[in-house]
């Protein structure tokens, strides 16, 4: 469960730090919208379809297999967050230089 919510804090803190104060709430809202559309819309639907397909093929533990497979996305996101964290100060300085 930690992995599911661990990205919210750093992501929203970064957004709030990098965008102008006048539009912070709007940008946060636009960030939450695709997270919900993809996560609650596509994610749940595709997970259900995958579980149903595995049940039809006779797998004994389809939910476990699908959830274990979804962990790949968490592992793919880790280097992306690391890269963003390593570049954060450089990007922030470039943003401040432009304004």
Would you kindly provide a written description of the structure presented here, covering whatever features stand out?
The chain is mainly alpha-helical. It has one domain. Helices cover 86% and strands 0% of the residues. Helix 3 (24-56) runs antiparallel to helix 4 (62-98).
Order of helices and strands: HHHH
The amount of helix comes to: over 70%
Give the mean pLDDT: 87
Summed up, the domain count is: 1
Count helical runs.
4
Oligomer: single chain
The number of distinct β-strands equals 0
What's the story with the biggest beta sheet? none
Q: Per the principal axes of the C-alpha atoms, what is the gross shape?
A: elongated
What is the topological layout?
Elements: H1 2-5, H2 8-18, H3 24-56, H4 62-98
Helix pairs in contact: 3-4
Descriptive labels:
single chain; 99 residues; mainly alpha; 4 helices; 0% strand
Short description, anyone?
The chain is mainly alpha-helical and 99 residues long.
């Amino acid at each position: 469960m930690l992995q599911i919510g661990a990205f919210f804090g750093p992501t929203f803190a970064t957004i709030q730090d990098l965008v102008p104060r006048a539009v912070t709430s709007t940008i946060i809202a636009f960030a939450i919208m695709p997270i919900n559309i993809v996560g609650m819309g596509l994610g749940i639907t595709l997970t259900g379809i995958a579980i149903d397909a595995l049940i039809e093929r006779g797998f004994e533990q389809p939910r476990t297999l699908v959830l274990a497979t979804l962990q790949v996305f968490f592992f793919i996101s880790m280097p992306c967050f690391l890269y963003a964290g390593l570049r954060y100060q450089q990007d922030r300085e470039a943003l401040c230089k432009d304004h």
